[in-house]
Design brief:
With 102 residues, the chain is mainly beta. The protein is 9% helix and 65% strand.
Length: 102
């Protein structure tokens, strides 16, 4: 777990970031568009569409078979970001904001 201290203007804020990798079990395509990613717990819907060249690399099996997951805790909310890695590029495929109160 990493703790990041940032400063924006005169306002200081702290973020707690936890980062880990999750193995990919498969991909769900509709036509040539990536719709979902199968992981151990089920199907993760794709909310951020990757560019066409990354979609093609996934279809050809050139993308890494692991997702990079970041959990960011900021001002009582938790944000989950999921990225797929294609060689040297990392592209967001899913983002969700969870309120800790619920």
């Amino acid at each position: 777990m990493a703790e990041v201290l940032g400063k924006s203007g005169f306002v200081s804020y702290r973020e707690v970031i936890e980062e880990y990798e999750v193995p990919i079990r498969g991909f769900l395509f509709k036509g040539e568009k990536l719709e979902g990613i199968y992981v151990r717990g089920g199907l993760l819907p794709v909310t951020e569409e990757p560019p066409k060249d990354i979609n093609e690399d996934i279809l050809r099996g050139k993308a890494r078979k692991k997702l990079l997951v970041r959990e960011i805790k900021y001002k009582g909310a938790e944000i989950i970001e999921v990225y797929i890695q294609d060689g040297y590029r990392t592209w967001p495929v899913y983002e969700a904001s969870l309120d800790e109160a619920s």
